[in-house]
Amino acid sequence: MSVGLAIWSYRNTVPRTTSARRNLLIALRSVGIAALLFAIFQPIISSINTEKIAPSIAVVMDNSQSMTLPEKGFAFVPNTETRRDVMLHSIHKAIPANVLSDPSKTKLFTVGDQSIPFPNGTAVDSIKPDAGATDLSSAFRVIRDIRKTSDAEAIVLYTDGAFNSGENPIYPAQELGVPVYAVGLGDSTEPRDVAVTELFTNEVATVGAEQPVDITLHYGGVKPGEHLTVQLFEEDQKLDEKTLELPQSVGDEAVSFQYTPKSEGTKKLTARVSQLSGEATDKNNLRITYVKVLKNKFHVVLFAGAPSSDVSFLRQFFSENPTLQLSTYTQKQGAAFYEGVPTREALGQVDLVVLVGFPIASSSEESIALIRQLLARDGRSLLFIPSHQLDLAKLSELGDAVPIRADARMASNVELKAGIALTASAAEDPLLRVPPEDRGSITWEGLAPLFKTETQFTALPESRTLATANVQGVKMNEPLLVTRTIGSARQIAFTGYGIWQWKLTTFGREEAYTSKSDSSKSKISALDLFLANAVRLLTTQQENKHVRIEPDRKFYQAGERIDFLGQVYDESMEPVEHADVAIQISGQTLSKPLELSLEAAGNGRFVANLPQGLPKGDYSYKGTATLNGRGLGTDDGRFNVGDFNIELAEPRMRSDILRAMAERTGGKFYTPETAANLLKDIYANPQFQPREITNSHDYELWNSWPLLTLAIVCFGAEWFIRKRLGML
User: How far, CA to CA in Å, does 492 sit from each of 124, 294, 317, 388?
Assistant: First the structure.
C-alpha cells in the first residue's frame, strides 16, 4: 500500500526530474508511510517454541519441630528413633543415590512454616527440624510455580501430616493435579493425651463488654468417666474453671466461658486443661491468644418510621448493653420526631446507625440527608430493618449507602410471611454463629417466619446474601438477610420485618437452650443471640491504619528467629517508600527495651529480624514510622516465646489427611516400612511421562524507537531533496 501510494504521488512531478531521483523519493516516501502504518495498525510478531521435558520427582521433607518426636509412641526416651531419623532412612532406601542427587530427576524441598528448595549439592542428612510451624499447602504453591518452567510429575511427601499453618493441604494438592505419594511419619494411634486444639474469641473487645471464649479439646486413650478441669486465665489471673466428664475413650469436647475485660490494652488469654495421669505430653495442654481491649463506649442512633414491636425490642436490647449509648428518634405524624430534631451536632460521635421502617413518606429531606452523611461520608455501620410503612422512593435517596435496593414503581403493600433459607455462604458467617455446645442441634431456619411485602428487593453486587426468602416451602430467589463491608464499616440489612418474634422463641425447639444436666442454665432467645453477634460485628471497626507493624507469628520457641513486617501508608493510603521505621521490644527477660530499625523492602514494606530469637517469656512491642521528622503513625502488640509449642499440639500422625491427599491426586499412601516400592509405583503411573512446555513471546514491531527514527529520517530526507529540487 505504501509503495503504491508513493508511486501514485510521484507519477508527475513539477518540475520534472530524473528517473533516479524520482525512484529515490518514491523509496523514501514508501518507507516513511510503511513506518507510520506500522504505528497505526500495531502489528505483533509472535514467537512460539515447544520443548519436551523429562519428568522429575519433587521430594518434600518436613523440617518442622514435630520431626523431633519419636517415630513410635509419644514418650521422650533417650536414644529413641525420631521421625527425622526414620524419614532419612526411608529416603535413602526408597530412592537410589544417583536419582536423589540428580537435579534433572529429583528436586528436593523442605516444608515448615514455608516451603523452600533444598540447596543443590547439599546432603539430605543435613536437614534440621527447627521450623516452628507446618504449612503443607505452601509446598504445592512452590511446586506449582516451578512447573511453569520444569517438569515435576510426582510429589513424594515425607511428613506426619499435622499442619498448623496455612490452609488444608488437601485442596491445593488436588488443584495442582500432580500425584502425591505420601509417606506418613509418626504413630497414627491415639495416645493417652488431652490437647487444647482451639481457643477462639474476638480479637477486639471493649471494657465491660462480655464476650464468649470458646475452647475445644481433643482427647484419646482415656477411660469413660474420667474428669478434666479447664481453666481460663487473663495474664496470670484465673478467671474461671469448669470440670468435664469424658463420655468416651476418644473424642472432642467444647467448653465456653464468658470474658469481661476490665481495663484497656492488649490482654493475654490462656486456656489450660489439667494433665492426665500417664499423658503422652503436657506441652499441648494450653493455648494462648491476645485480645485488644478498647475503652470506647459505642454510640448507637436508631431512626424509626413509627412505633412498632421491632423498635421496642431493639431499644430494650441496646439499652441493656453496658457498652452502648443509645439515641432514639421515632417519627410521629408529619416530619417531626418524638425526641426532637436530630442534627449532626446533637448526635455527636456515631458508631452505628439503625434504621427500622425508616424513611416513610413524610420523612424530611433533612433527616434523610443526615443519615446519608453518616453512612456515605462518615462511613458508619448500618443495621436496616424495613416495615410495612417503608417508603421506597425515600429509601432510594440514600442510594448505595444501603446494601439493598428496590424499584419504587414496583412497590406492593400485600403482606406475606417468609421463612429463612440459608445460603451456602452463611455456614461459617460470624453473624449466625451459635455457642459450641449447641452446634448441630440449632437451626436458624427453624425460627418464626418474618413479615414481608411482595416488593422485590435486590442486593447490591458487593453484598453477601446470607439468607433468601422461603414462602410456603418455596425458596425464592430474593434476599432476606444481606451483609456488606465498605471500607471500615459493616452493614446488615433485612428485607423482612417482625424479628421481635425471635425474642419469644428459641430455635423452634423449647429445649434448644436448656441443658438437661444443668437445669439452672438460662435460655437465650434467638433475637438476643442474633443482635449480640450483629453488635459485635458492626461495632468492631476495621481501621485503615497508616502504619502496620507485627511479627510474622504470635508464638515462637526460645532462640527461634523472629521476623517483623511493616507497612507504611500516607493519608491517601499510598505506600511510603523512604520512611524511618523502628520498633521497641519490652519484656521481663530484657534488662532494657530492645530497639530495631526496619529496612525498606519496596512498595511501602519494611522488614527486620532477630536471628538469635529471644528467651522464653511474654513480650510487647511498639513501632513508629516517621518521614523527615514528621510522625506517620504507630502500631503495637504482643507475642510469646516458649510458653506454647504449636508443633507439639498434635503429636499423632494425621494419616487421614495424608490418605485423602494421596487418594484425591492419584498417588498412594505409605508408611516408612512400605515405602520401598515408592519409585516403582511412580514410574508405573501413566501420568509420569515427558511433558511439553510451550513458550511464547510477542514482539511489538510498532513500539520501538528505531521505527520512529526511520520514519523521521525518511520524511526528512524526502523534504530536503524536494526543497533542493524546488518541487511543489
Answer: 55, 23, 17, 19
Grid cell listed for 662:
494421596
Distance CA 321, CA 160 (A): 47
pLDDT (mean) for 426-447: 72
CA-wise closest residue to 22 among 724, 723, 721:
721
> Residues near 139 by Cβ (< 8 Å), separated by ≥ 6?
60, 109, 111, 115, 155, 157, 169
Cβ(95)–Cβ(59) under 8 Å? Answer: yes
In the chain the first and final C-alpha atoms are separated, in Å, by: 23
Nearest residue to 381 (alpha-carbon basis) of 405, 401, 397, 365? 401
Q: Which of 419, 441, 421 has its CA nearest to residue 513? A: 441
What are the C-alpha distances in Å from 387 to residues 355, 365, 392?
10, 20, 11
pLDDT per residue as tens digits for the range 509-561: 444 344 334 434 445 678 888 998 898 888 765 555 678 999 988 888 888 88
Q: What region, left, alpha or beta, does residue 305 occupy, with left being phi > 0 and alpha being psi -120 to 50 degrees?
A: alpha
Distance of CA 313 to the CA centre of its chain: 35
Closest CA to 51 of 675, 680, 693: 693
Nearest to 446 by CA among 494, 384, 510: 510
Helix axes 526-539, 309-320, angle to 10 degrees: 60
Query: How far apart are the C-alpha atoms of 652 and 160, rounded to whole Å?
Result: 8
pLDDT tens digits, residue range 321-351?
A: 887 889 999 998 888 999 999 998 888 888 8
Phi, psi of 24 (to 5 degrees): -65, -45
Q: Which three cell numbers stand for residue 283?
A: 506441652
Sorting pLDDT into bands at 50, 70 and 90, what band is 234?
Answer: very high
Residues facing 290 on adjacent strands: 268
Residue appearing with cell numbers 442510594? 399
C-alpha–C-alpha distance, residues 384 and 491, integer Å: 8
Residue 618 near residue 268, CB atoms below 8 Å: yes
Q: How far apart are alpha carbons 329 and 41 in whole angstroms?
A: 64
* Closest by Cα among 295, 268, 280 to 638: 268
Query: What is the C-alpha to C-alpha distance for residues 608 and 208, in angstroms, rounded to an integer?
Result: 37
Question: What 3-state DSSP class applies to 384?
Answer: strand
| Strand partners for 154 | 57
C-alpha cell belonging to residue 470: 422461603
